[in-house]
Amino acid sequence: xxxxxxxxxxxxxxxxxxxxxxxxxxxxGILNLxxxxxxxxxxxxxxxxxxxxxxxxxxxxxxxxxxxIVCCITGYLVERFCYRKxxxxxxxxxxxxxxxxxxxxxYTIMLLFKANPRAYNIDQSQFINIYDASISKTKVFILIxxxxxxxxxxxxxxxxxxxxxxxxxxxxxxxxxxxxxNKQSAISCAFNIxxxxxxxxxxxxxxxxxxxxxxxxxxxxxxxxxxxxxxxxNIPGAVLGGLMLGFTETFSTVFFNSSVKDIxxxxxxxxxLLFLPGGxxxxxxxxxxx
Amino acid sequence: MKKLVLxxxxxxxxxxxxxxxxxxxxxxxxxxxxxxxxxGLDICTGVSGQVSLGQAGFMAIGGYICAKLIIINNSFTFIxxxxxxxxxxxxxxxxxxxxxxxxxxxxxxxxxTMALGEIIILYFELSKHFGKARGxxxxxxxxxxxxxxxxxxxxxxxxxxxxxxxxxxLCFAIGQDEIASKSIGIKTLSFKISSFIIGAIICSVAGxxxxxxxxxxxxxxxxFGKSIDCLAAxxxxxxxxxxxxxxxxxxxxxxxxxxxxxxxxxxxxxxVLLIVFAHKRYYKKG
Lengths: 290, 286
Prior knowledge:
Distance between the termini of chain B: 38 Å
Helix content of chain B: over 70%
Radius of gyration of chain B: 18 Å
Shape of chain B: globular
Number of strands of chain B: 0
Shape of chain A: globular
Radius of gyration of chain A: 19 Å
Number of strands of chain A: 2
Oligomer: heterodimer
């Protein structure tokens, strides 16, 4: 077994999970709502990227920009029609509504593109050799993009006005509104950021693996697991959780076989939910969970 | 109540002659099985408000274990014993896991049950004894319209009795407001567990009947879509009404069969309906 190679694989898988998990965390942090349709929004992003790359011949940057626009529109529709009215009601309604949204998006895409898996038409043959491992240029690009996005996001939330107001709303909604913060704009902003992250991660996922209308399910669940593992509503936590999950999966594939990794992920999810409600970083967002 | 019994008897008399045709027979059995599933989930989700998305997992346990036992010995008494054993195993698992995960609040609970269902399916997919991804086949087709109907009637009357019983009322109170019911001294956890176990048992019986109807089972028969169908029946039919989810389950199963060629359109309509009904049932001003 080539150890360096496995570490690189774990890192690139972990980067994807971190990006999706960041999307979950952004929406959860402000709305206290698990956006179960997040995986589907990511899928929409992946298909937008597929069209832009394969039919129009754009490169991945432009594909990402296009995907961000389409995903923000989708995300707005989901938020407007599935969540906004029942946000203050019982959580059960939100779960059912989100499942309805996922099914609708999945099968609309299936009608448009048929169910067969597709691949991006990009050059994957260029490799860079590091020590005794080789890494494709696409993966290097992905790692760089994710690091840039994570740092921009941290800066945005910590130092800009909009970021601070979003954190205020997530801390105490009523008090934030009393201070003159526009709640709805903060919520929309968080949702848009979450959808943009989903779009970027969708394009990245598509450039590495095959895409199909049901791809949002499993990676979505896993990224959710990463978000919980790192402490939901916490940006460094999501990154940490994503990377840990990426490494766990890569190494469990090496040591056992590839289907054990799915069981392992779900067992981690259950264990963390039950015994470590705050996640690894001890986030206090999940206090009302148990 | 009397009207209900009458309706049930009339429907039974109508479907007996239909069951001569093997294709119709299969459809009727499938409909009865999804009705049983809907009753099971209605007790868990409708009455005590615990949204479970792992119901297909319990169905898989019922189907696999019952099939495994029946392949060994295929006499009538043994079939009954096999169904009982498989549902007991489901009940034990539901008790063991439920006493942990039912501490979670609504949306986390649904995630946890979703994970539980996936773990069970993945286990059957990996296990050598259960035929891996290929599944089990050559299962004796023991199920017929009488057996399915008798079990359906038992489940129906049990659930009606359960809703009217004291336990049912307490469970309903928990489903409405958990903190308030805790504060008047109801042991919420144990009631939630008991309704979860009942849901699991009824679903695993449905799974056992399923394996006896089709004759072969594979992990893909019990995917996440089954749990969604089940939940949709409860939400569309109206939680805690028993008769509503049954009617909804019949309609869902019928549309699945009739609209087979345009399945994608059906699923889109289905998704939109879920959103609309979620708004209708859980809308709260303020």
